[in-house]
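User: Can you write out an input/output pair for a complex, sequences first and structure second?

Assistant: Here is one pair. Inputs:
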Amino acid sequence: AQSVTQLDSHVSVSEGTPVLLRCNYSSSYSPSLFWYVQHPNKGLQLLLKYTSAATLVKGINGFEAEFKKSETSFHLTKPSAHMSDAAEYFCVVSSQGGKLIFGQGTELSVKP
Amino acid sequence: DVKVTQSSRYLVKRTGEKVFLECVQDMDHENMFWYRQDPGLGLRLIYFSYDVKMKEKGDIPEGYSVSREKKERFSLILESASTNQTSMYLCASSSRDRRGYTFGSGTRLTVV
């Protein structure tokens, strides 16, 4: 069975500093992995996805994530946080049947 | 612009009422999903459908049923609403190859 764990429920950074949101997954086969972002009172937006091509995946708004099979991790990073990055972020794994399995979410706060 | 449309943004219903949440997609997607989102729990899959008149239980189907009479429409039904079903409900769709998932904006249901 597939599962995903987001290691931090809340992360706070200062504007201009790096962002790291951690995600570990469990899968019995080569998974598809996603990061979604949800701004307050908005729908879910796809940031990036990994589908067994390059292990370093670049997404929108300067975010990227690296698939590390040996560590079963798919951490999301951004070199320099912006105030508009404040939102909730979800790490997601796709099951063989096509279902999306969500992590518990990480709320990112950005201080001026 | 392709989209998934949920008929209501906010709903308030009374305990014991039968509640219908409607979802329509215009992308000719085979797969459709209903999730509920609760703080600290991420999104949890209630039901999904791979085709018209096909449905399968997700992780938390108790107290819910679904209907998919047409390819573009997937309805979530609360047979007898209870206060513990107060939540944000999100509909999603994907093509059969699962290359992309599109989410609706959500329906925030309050059961009083």
